[in-house]
Amino acid sequence: MTAEWILFGFVIGFIPATILAGLAMAMITPDGTVNMLIFPAGIAGGIVGAVVVAVLAAPFPFNGAAYPGGVQHTSGDAHAPAAAPGGDGQAIFLSLPSKACHTIDSLKSQGVTGAIGPNLTHIGTTAATAKPGMDVEAYIRESIEKPSAFVVNGYQDAMPAGLVQPGPNMDKLVAFLVALK
Fold it and tell me: pLDDT for 59-77, tens place per residue?
């Protein structure tokens, strides 16, 4: 478990708990200083969020250990997996935390059974009509690079951007997903 995951969990738990409960109060002083009063509901929500993310993300550390070949360290690309043996887009997908959020029926035995994001079993077919005016490959690529650009009805905008940066690994991953018919 890394500090990035724990911080991410705290933030995603803290902010909604604080805002939804209406327990945060911001005050701007005449000199422009912002003072934020933090109440127990926000802290409790942050702790719950950190624990939930810690449990869900434990198998997916951002230290390269879970990625075939380690982590590629290129400019602005600290979390993308290196090319998997054989250059396989499926192996790249399996090395990402995505398998905890999405389901692919043919990969259920490998733990791809998530329900947070859309089922990807037939994404190569369903993507053709998901966003009018966009072809399958462009839709899948945009969904990985900028997941907030289009959120499928019935799902939250929860996918983090930047799991895979543009380049050979992105191309292999997109090709794998396009082939899921």
Answer: 544 444 444 443 343 434 4
Say if residues 69 and 88 touch (Cβ distance below 8 Å). Answer: no
Non-local CB neighbours of 33 within 8 Å, separated by 6+ positions:
none
Residues 73-87 have pLDDT tens digits of: 343 444 444 443 324
13-51 burial by CB neighbour count: b if 16+ within 10 A, else e?
bbeebbeeeebbeeeeeeeeeeeeeeeebbbebbebbbe
Taking CA atoms, 82 is separated from 98, 111, 129, 141, in Å, by 16, 21, 31, 18
Token output for 77: 């690309």
Q: Are 178 and 140 in contact (CB under 8 A)?
A: yes
pLDDT value of residue 69: 40
Longest CA–CA separation in the chain, Å = 61
Query: What's the whole-number mean pLDDT along residues 89-100?
Result: 90
Please name each of the domains of the chain with its CATH number. Answer: 3-57 (no CATH), 85-178 (1.10.760.10)
The residue assigned the tokens 């990035």 is 4
DSSP 115-170: -SS---TTHHHHHHHHSTT--HHHHHHHHHH-GGG---TTS-S-PPTTSS-TTHHH
